[in-house]
From TrEMBL:
Superkingdom assignment: Bacteria
UniProt keywords, alphabetically: NAD, Oxidoreductase
Organism phylogeny: Bacteria, Bacillati, Bacillota, Bacilli, Bacillales
SUPFAM superfamilies: ALDH-like
Reaction(s) catalysed (UniProt annotation): (2S)-3-sulfolactaldehyde + NAD(+) + H2O = (2S)-3-sulfolactate + NADH + 2 H(+)
Ranges where the Aldehyde dehydrogenase domain occurs: 12-476
Protein's name in the database: 3-sulfolactaldehyde dehydrogenase
Family per similarity comment: Belongs to the aldehyde dehydrogenase family.
Role: Part of the sulfo-TAL (or sulfo-SFT) pathway, a D-sulfoquinovose degradation pathway that produces sulfolactate (SL). Catalyzes the oxidation of 3-sulfolactaldehyde (SLA) to sulfolactate (SL).
Enzymatic class: oxidoreductase
One MF term in the entry's GO annotations: aldehyde dehydrogenase (NAD+) activity
Record note on quaternary structure: Homotetramer.
EC number, as in UniProt: 1.2.1.3, 1.2.1.97
Keyword match Oxidoreductase: yes
């Protein structure tokens, strides 16, 4: 199947474009072919999105929200199909595929609710007989650039607040995972979303992504991906005075204190380190452990890791699927090699999996290093695979310092039974998301999602905070005094 762009409610792609195969990372099977669109497709999409936005902004927000309810319902009806497609193209196990689709459904209903809120503020004027208020105004056409590790959820975090607020959008999904974008475009069509409100253009970051950022009629760029790409996006967006929202890499840690429930900590670490084969932006890739429980934690982790089942994510009994492609496999392996050279002690894994059934896909053994120095490269850089480093500390203060030593600031977690330590940690951990007695993953869609430092640039996906990305504040003064009143001057 050759995928087609969805622009202005029409499906189409010029045949002379280059098409790239979409590969199932579990078995190497070709699932579809995705077009590498030219800048012409971006031009076309921006023109229709700009035209559509004028009318869309005039549709009352609760009516715009009705389309989101319809999208949510349709996603619910198609949930199993969507989850299967997601698992095939991205590799995450089917229960996580279902979970990701559910996140999109939840986001649709949550943001639909915002259609009846979109609160502004009224405030007293400093002058008599004058009324003052501020409202959220839509911005225009927004460009969405998304990564492959959450092929649908991240797009819903961005596109649903964008449209409920009265914007139209053009979505460029990652080349590795275009099929969920295609499925979502079908849903936009099925629910009768007005033409041009939602557009999908497939293609490379360098061509389609750049064209979106540079286009004068695209006012907002919302990007999720690596910190390296994000900084390029910010630079180019800055040059063109765009509002740019960036959600980027992570190097997330679980802290295990000497009073922690170790059984719970092991469960939390396994789920957040090896779920999605370690390819979540919030994945745990460091465990900062108190010296008094280090040996026991290592032993418990090793025992639990033996029970992890690895294979094709469509098999319900499998807990860990493949990584996205061969390049990722080799990048992970080279970090493991680096870890060995840096003197870390390898306790488990450390190899590409071979033999049946792994040969056709891209599988990496869940890997555990210990005695890792806090400033080693494997403890500082994003590996984005099933590799965890144990770092020993002597106190809560040291644990927090080690957690905060990385350039990223997405998610962190602490296992402790001491309420005072928990509160100190949630205050001092320098990340956008903090968990107490849970792993580093598991964000809920009605709270802001994003990170500090090298993970973001101050914006947030999800929650009401997402509306800040897709709206401008407009302040409105209504003078009913019948005379010209001059603020700051007529106040005596
Ligand atoms: P990536 O940066 O390689 O690509 C992300 C998107 O940007 C893709 O659609 C890609 O085509 C596009 N792109 C590439 N070059 C571009 C350019 N020059 N201009 C514009 N667009 C360009 O990231 P990836 O490998 O797809 O995803 C993995 C990364 O995403 C990891 O670093 C992970 O931590 C991060 N991530 C972050 C979050 C978060 O919310 N903080 C969530 C998920 C993933």
């Amino acid at each position: 199947m050759k995928l087609q762009n969805f622009i202005g409610g029409q499906w189409g792609t010029s045949e002379d474009l280059k098409f790239v195969p979409v590969i199932n990372p579990a078995n190497g099977e070709e699932l579809a072919q995705v077009p590498m669109s030219s800048t012409g497709a971006v031009e076309q999409a921006v023109a229709v999105a700009k035209k559509a936005q004028k009318n869309w902004a005039l549709v009352p927000a609760p009516k715009r929200a009705d389309y989101l309810y319809a999208i949510g319902l349709r996603m619910k009806e198609k949930k199993e199909h969507l989850a299967q497609v997601l698992t095939k193209e991205m590799g995450k196990v089917i229960e996580e595929g279902r979970g990701e689709v559910q996140e999109g459904i939840d986001m649709a209903f949550y943001m639909a609710g915002e259609g009846r809120r979109l609160f502004g503020e009224t405030t007293p004027s400093e002058l008599a007989n004058k009324f003052a208020m501020s409202v959220r105004a839509p911005i225009g056409v927004v460009g969405l650039i998304t990564p492959w590790n959450f092929p649908v959820a991240i797009a819903t975090w961005k596109s649903f607040p964008a449209i409920v607020a009265g914007n139209t959008f053009i979505w460029k999904p990652a080349t590795e995972t275009p099929m969920m974008a295609y499925e979502m475009a079908k849903i936009f069509e099925e629910v009768g979303l007005p033409d041009g409100v939602a557009n999908v253009v497939f293609g490379s970051g360098s061509e389609v992504g750049t064209a979106l950022i540079e286009h004068p009629d695209v006012k907002v760029i919302s990007f999720t991906g690596s910190t390296a790409t994000g900084s390029k996006v910010a630079e180019l967006g800055g040059r063109h005075l765009k509002k740019v929202s960036l959600e980027m890499g992570g190097k997330n840690a679980v802290i295990v204190m000497d009073d922690a429930d170790l059984e719970l900590a092991v469960e939390g670490i396994l789920w957040s380190a090896f779920g999605t084969a370690g390819q979540r932006c919030t994945a745990c890739s460091r465990v900062i452990v108190h010296k008094d429980v280090k040996a026991e934690l290592e032993e418990r982790l090793l025992t639990a890791m033996q029970l992890l089942t690895i294979g094709d994510g469509l098999d319900e009994s499998v807990k860990i699927g493949p990584v996205i492609n061969k390049t990722a496999l080799h990048k992970i392996n080279s970090y493991v090699e680096l870890g060995r050279q840096e003197g870390a002690k390898l306790l488990a894994g450390g190899n590409i999996l071979t033999g049946t059934p792994f040969d056709q896909g891209f599988y990496y053994a869940p890997t555990l290093f210990t005695d890792v120095k806090w400033d080693a490269r494997i403890a500082q850089e994003e590996i984005f695979g099933p590799v965890v480093s144990l770092i020993e500390v002597e106190s809560l203060e040291e644990a927090i310092e080690v957690n905060n030593s990385v350039q990223f600031g997405l998610s962190s977690s602490i296992f402790t039974q001491d309420i005072n330590r928990a509160f100190q940690a949630q205050r001092d951990l320098d990340t956008g998301i903090v968990y107490v007695n849970a792993g580093t993953t598991g964000a809920e869609i009605h709270l802001p999602f994003g990170g500090t430092k090298g993970t973001g640039n101050g914006h947030r996906d999800s929650g009401v905070a997402a509306l800040d990305v897709y709206t401008e504040w407009k302040s409105i003064y209504i003078d009913y005094s019948g005379k010209l009143q001059r603020a700051q001057i007529d106040t005596e």
